[in-house]
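Handoff note, outgoing to incoming analyst
You'll be picking up this chain. Sequence as last confirmed:
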Amino acid sequence: MSSINVNTINEYTGANGVTIDGVLIKDGNVPSGLTEIDTWALTADVTSTGTITSNLARYNGTNAGYKGTGMTESSGVFTFPSTGLWLVSSGGHFGVSSDSGGGITIQATDNNSSYSNIGYNWVGGTGSTIYFGNDNSFVLDITDTSNDKVRFVADDMDNITIYGHASGRATQFRFIRLGDT
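Most recent structure output, in case you need it:
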């Protein structure tokens, strides 16, 4: 087996970059894997319908950590620290009583104003029908950190509890930057 040991590789012509095993390396932009990973948690139970605006904290359980700048949160609205393709997910623990259903709705905006539903974590049942969803994930193309945001809504909360926990072990919200757009 042969190997080449070098300290620097420069482009020979133009600004086209160098492709090695299908990965384009251009102008010093060397891929280094995931650059942003962050997990937030619900720290207290939610029992009423509406945007979850409080009791949100960065996960702080055993071996907890995050990579990069991390998300910022204000009144339940999460702001991305950089553009790119982001995986956004929520996973919840719920309690349901009576004939009812509801849960967490993930909402996104691209104008920092009007939000659209993009996913659901719902539980519940009516009569003999029981339904549930424990984890929900979406890939978002964040092109403008001033306008592209997400929030989580407690939706249709009649006889439902979304469980929170002081250490963040019950309901969590995850953000992973997958790469450039």
